[in-house]
Amino acid sequence: MTPSPPPTTHSEGEFVRLYTANARRVYTYILTLLPSRADAEDVFQDVGALLWDKFASFEPGTHFGAWACRIAFYRVLKHRVEEMRRPRVFGDVTLETIMAEMETTEASLDLDAEYRLLTECLAALPEADRRLIENRYAPEGAPRQLAAALNWPVKKVYKALDRIRKVLLGCVTRKIGEGSNA
């Protein structure tokens, strides 16, 4: 699936920020709906491209994560139809029940606050690290492509991304802790 050109109503940077903040949640959601990690990873890649293609239809001010999970839900259903030969772990009714539960549970989560904290932590990164993580979640941001663009070994890209993610996780975790102590 080849990504289309950038949407006209939103900026590429806005997509990268929103996608970065919600990618783990979308991947985890897909993983709960599919029995195979390999299938989940394939669908997740497709969903990333779909989100980029459909980003012009995203309404600013609404919850990007919920929107992304809804698109992921329909992509999982499509994948299940394509893979009818495989045994199913969950039936369609169970999948719909999980989706409904996630939508009701989502109201209790303060994902917007976590997004703001992640945005603060991203801004605090050294510029080279911030660019690397933003480029990773851009449509052409596969580690092999980044390695080629940077003239780095692929292993170095993976190590750098892992280090940056740990820094971001530590930063967000620390800020959440600071918020609960205030």
Q: Summary?
A:
By secondary structure, this protein is mainly α. The protein is built from 8 helices and no strands. Helix 3 (64-82) runs antiparallel to helix 4 (92-106) and helix 6 (127-136) crosses helix 8 (154-181).
- Please name the CATH architecture of the largest domain: Orthogonal Bundle
Q: Quick check: average pLDDT?
A: 82
End-to-end C-alpha gap = 47 Å
CATH class of the largest domain: Mainly Alpha
How many domain regions?
2
CATH topology of the largest domain: Rna Polymerase Sigma Factor, Chain: A
Order of helices and strands: HHHHHHHH
Walk me through the structure:
The chain folds into 2 domains: 12-106, Rna Polymerase Sigma Factor, Chain: A, CATH 1.10.1740; 111-181, Winged helix-like DNA-binding domain superfamily/Winged helix DNA-binding domain (Arc Repressor Mutant, subunit A), CATH 1.10.10.10. 74% of the residues lie in helices and 0% in strands. It contains 8 helices and no strands. The protein has helices spanning 12-33, 37-54, 64-82, 92-106, 111-124, 127-136, 143-150, 154-181. The longest helix is centred in the C-terminal third of the chain and has 28 residues, at 154-181. It starts with 11 loop residues before the first helix and ends with a helix. The mean pLDDT is 82.
